User: Which sequence fits this backbone?
């Protein structure tokens, strides 16, 4: 393509780059048993949770940071991170009026007006700023159905039995380096419990934002769908622009009981660093769902456009007979971004099924990897898996990689994997040009079409945001 | 934890003078660096290490094998050991008994000008510059098993096609184990195909005794010069107690083509790895493998194929049919380096799990650093189509027969891609017989066997 050399690479401005001056409550830098105790004390946690944290911390100390991912991670000084930062609030607000106006303003600038959402969209938004949940809406409505949707710390206080029963059951603190770290210092997150036979009438939504400078955010999300329950959960991320790297190591655990169904959708747009790769969020996340009940279903949908480094594998353990796991992902990397993302489908239950559709788009000098595992345990008869991962390359300096691991230990399984890598064909661009569509628009059009299969899986409200994100990322781009 | 590498390091340390005295200096010169590399590796790969989901070199090398470091001649009845594995094929044959090279009279008589087939020891004397220029340059102690091969290397096979020399007939290297005691063979093949030359090499592995443990450690290095063409066929027809660890390294200059087919029919645990470097523009590589495994056999294949230059093409087709408790693994990585524009790479891995406890581990990978490429891979693992089986049964074909026919059909496209006519026919027959339950897969329909 002749124009290619003359056109700048994709560099859509990060439009959520600002910080708000909300007084923040810090604890000192660094990580030690003392810090873990302090976090636990600040949050007024029971002894069993402190023990859980300490055990995780002691285990974490024995671990080394994993190096197997196709990522170039600069050394992280874990002693130079503030492990807890909570917006200063004396007591939980009873209504929106009690919330700090500056905080509300931040959300407004982000395009998440709480009151509007409460009134108009019918969504329950549990906004997490830094680490403490600030305001939850629609709680009363959900409470009528017996649905619990609250911040994690609140759940620890109000429903300790439930939390204790499920915490760490899907992602043990021994799971990996970042899971151990999170288990030791997790600050807050969301807790969702859908009781037996209840269909959650609205989409539950949480916004995570990293706000205080130099604080890692360590959320912990726990979603439990009891027998025959249904919930669709949305998680969206935007972070203010910042120069130093920020560490984010979250854990999401989902438990799906018999015939229950959970949809988990993410749009991740944290600050990715500037064009030279300075700054940006390190996103090292452990997300895993356990389809424990027979005929349970879990759907992961993710649109990843942000973060300097992403290390994330939303996975399904398909333990129940006939359980279903699906994973749909669009990952866009640009400039110096690096992403190593994918999924794991672990088939243990008979006749369990899984589908994986992964679409990678790399541009600039970025590296984008799909890494996946499909494992069929010896006792899992009649398993079916279909995997498709496509990569689209938008520059000659980026990289697109595929690392699928397929481990079939039961001969009755049917497992398919297909991957392709290509660039946008000149024919397609030419066709658009010919019809008066400028090259840049044509690229946007083609990329959106390419990602459509995944976008279609997102809930309506999210799909709009995700499409907007894609086009922002693709501004000034040419294939 | 057990570390079987130590016994080899001790053996080398204790007998270095003997090993060196019975090998040409050019090979001795490689030894110190290889031993040094082994010490750095510290151990052989184990099951569970990245790239070794099933087979374990550590376990393969653990038994106490004999090594013929004094190069005592092992008598071999060549006619008896190699009767007619490929009937009607006219090849130029050399026999490697254990790891000692024995050319046949026909080979010596019929080699055309420009083509040389000789022992590595002789080549070290006759072509010292070639040997030092090429030997161990690709393998380069890149893994512990390869370094061990180099550290114990005393002889091997040297094949060279001079510039413009083209040989249509295949050069067949017959590897034989026949000792009554457990033996390990350190096999090495160096193939140099200079500019515009053409070579066809057929390697086949046989064990004359089914009741003795053997281990074959094989390293093949192939240099294909500009516009050269190399075909490599690798056929395993040994015994269940013959383990094999083979590493093939290929470097291709511009326009060079490399074609290889591996057939694992009968034998013990087998680990085969290939590293193909497409270094010159317009080079092409085609790799195929056909694996039929039964019992509790482990068969691992891995490929690292690098597109380092523009306009290169690569094709891979690996097919497994796994019976009984057998385990298969395939690890294939295609790397497209920056600047390797117009790359066309395709990789396919298809696996049939026939046995009730058979397992497959497939790991096809793409690593791409260049945008103007067409790269794809596909992997499937499954079983015979129930509808096809039903169709055949409804037409009066017994289930066993129908199954056999379907597996055979599944396997045939690899066999069909073989470019040596006689070998292709032979492979078709062997696959048919192998699937018919004839584990030895020897041919009864040719005059020599009767």
Assistant:
């Amino acid at each position: 393509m002749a124009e290619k050399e003359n056109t700048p690479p994709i560099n859509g401005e990060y439009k959520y780059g600002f910080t708000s001056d909300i007084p923040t409550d810090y604890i000192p830098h660094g990580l030690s048993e003392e810090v873990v105790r302090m976090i636990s004390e600040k949050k007024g946690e029971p002894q069993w949770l402190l023990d859980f944290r300490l055990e995780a911390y002691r285990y974490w100390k024995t671990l080394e940071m994993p190096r197997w991912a196709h990522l170039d991670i600069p050394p992280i000084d874990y002693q130079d991170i503030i492990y807890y930062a909570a917006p200063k609030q004396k007591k939980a607000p009873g209504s929106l009026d009690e919330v700090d106006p500056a905080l509300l303003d931040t959300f407004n600038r982000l395009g998440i007006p709480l009151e509007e959402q409460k009134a108009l969209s019918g969504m329950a938004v549990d906004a997490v700023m830094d680490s403490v949940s600030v305001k939850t809406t629609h709680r009363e409505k959900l409470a009528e159905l017996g649905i619990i949707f609250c911040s994690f710390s609140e759940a620890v206080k109000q429903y300790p039995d439930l939390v204790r029963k499920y915490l760490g059951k899907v992602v043990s603190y021994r799971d990996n380096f970042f899971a151990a770290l999170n288990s030791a210092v997790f600050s807050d997150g969301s807790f969702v419990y859908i009781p037996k036979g209840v269909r959650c009438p609205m989409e539950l939504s949480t916004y995570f934002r990293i706000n205080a400078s130099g604080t890692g955010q360590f959320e912990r999300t726990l979603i439990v769908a009891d027998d025959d329950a249904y919930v669709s959960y949305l998680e969206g991320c935007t972070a203010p622009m910042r120069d130093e790297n920020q560490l984010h190591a979250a854990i999401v655990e989902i438990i799906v009981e018999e015939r229950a169904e959970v949809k988990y959708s993410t749009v991740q747009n944290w600050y990715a660093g500037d064009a030279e790769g300075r700054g940006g969020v390190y996103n090292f996340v452990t997300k895993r769902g356990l389809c424990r009940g027979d005929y349970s279903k879990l759907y992961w949908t993710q649109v990843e456009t942000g973060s300097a480094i992403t290390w994330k594998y939303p996975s399904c353990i398909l333990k129940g007979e006939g359980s279903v796991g699906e994973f749909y992902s669009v990952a866009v990397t640009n400039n110096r971004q690096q992403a190593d993302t994918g999924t794991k489908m672990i088939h243990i239950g008979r006749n369990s099924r899984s589908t994986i559709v992964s679409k990678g788009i790399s541009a600039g000098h970025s590296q984008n990897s799909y890494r996946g595992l499909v494992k069929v345990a010896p006792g899992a008869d009649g398993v079916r898996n279909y995997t498709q991962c496509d990569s689209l390359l938008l520059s000659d300096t980026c990289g697109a990689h595929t690392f699928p691991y397929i481990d079939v230990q039961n001969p009755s399984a049917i497992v398919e994997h297909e991957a392709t890598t290509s660039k946008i064909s000149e024919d397609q661009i030419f066709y658009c040009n010919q019809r008066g569509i400028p090259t840049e628009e044509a690229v946007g059009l083609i990329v959106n079409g390419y990602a459509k299969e995944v976008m279609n899986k997102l809930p309506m409200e999210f799909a709009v945001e995700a499409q907007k994100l894609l086009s922002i990322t693709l501004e000034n781009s040419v294939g | 934890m057990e570390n079987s590498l130590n016994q080899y390091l001790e053996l080398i340390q204790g007998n270095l003078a003997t090993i060196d005295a019975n090998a040409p200096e050019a090979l001795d010169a490689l030894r110190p660096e290889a031993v040094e590399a082994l010490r750095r590796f510290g151990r052989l790969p184990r099951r569970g290490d990245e790239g070794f989901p099933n087979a374990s070199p550590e376990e393969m090398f653990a038994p106490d094998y004999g090594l013929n470091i004094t190069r005592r001649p092992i008598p071999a009845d060549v006619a008896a050991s190699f009767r007619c594995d490929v009937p009607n094929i006219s090849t130029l044959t050399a026999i490697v008994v254990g790891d000692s090279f024995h050319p046949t009279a026909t080979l010596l008589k019929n080699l055309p000008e420009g083509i040389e087939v000789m022992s590595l020891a002789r080549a070290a004397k006759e072509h010292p510059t070639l040997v030092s220029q090429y030997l161990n340059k690709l393998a380069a102690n890149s893994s512990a098993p390869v370094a061990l091969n180099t550290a114990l290397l005393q002889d091997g096979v040297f094949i060279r096609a001079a510039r413009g020399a083209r040989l249509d007939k295949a050069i067949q290297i017959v590897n034989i184990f026949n000792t009554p005691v457990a033996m390990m063979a350190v096999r090495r093949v160096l193939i140099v195909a200079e500019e515009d030359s053409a070579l066809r090499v057929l390697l086949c592995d046989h064990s004359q005794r089914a009741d003795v443990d053997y281990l074959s450690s094989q390293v093949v290095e192939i240099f294909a010069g500009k516009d050269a063409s190399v075909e490599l066929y690798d056929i395993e027809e040994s015994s269940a107690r013959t383990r094999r660890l083979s590493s093939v390294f290929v470097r291709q200059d511009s326009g060079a083509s490399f074609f290889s087919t591996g057939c694992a029919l009968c034998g013990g645990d087998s680990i085969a790895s290939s590293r193909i470097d497409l270094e010159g523009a317009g080079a092409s590589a085609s790799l195929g493998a056909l694996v039929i495994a039964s019992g509790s056999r482990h068969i691992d294949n891995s490929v690292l194929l690098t597109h380092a230059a523009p306009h290169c093409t690569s094709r891979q087709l690996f097919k497994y049919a796994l019976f009984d408790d057998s385990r298969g693994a395939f690890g294939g990585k295609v790397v497209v380096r920056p600047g390797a524009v117009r790359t066309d790479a395709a990789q396919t891995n298809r696996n049939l799990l026939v046995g009730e406890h058979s397992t497959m581990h497939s790991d096809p990978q793409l690593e791409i650093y260049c945008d103007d490429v067409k790269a794809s891979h596909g992997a499937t693992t499954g079983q015979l189509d129930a509808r096809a089986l039903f169709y055949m049964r409804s037409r009066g074909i017994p289930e066993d027969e129908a199954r056999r026919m379907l597996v055979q059909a599944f396997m045939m496209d690899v066999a069909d891609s073989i470019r040596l006519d006689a070998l292709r026919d032979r492979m078709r027959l062997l696959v048919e017989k192998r699937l018919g339950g004839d584990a030895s897969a020897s041919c009864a329909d040719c005059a020599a066997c009767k």
In short: Residues 439-455 of chain A form the longest helix (17 residues). The first strand of chain A starts at residue 24 and ends at 26. The CA atoms of residues 344 and 373 of chain A lie 5 Å apart. Chain A touches chain B through 35 residues (CB under 8 Å).
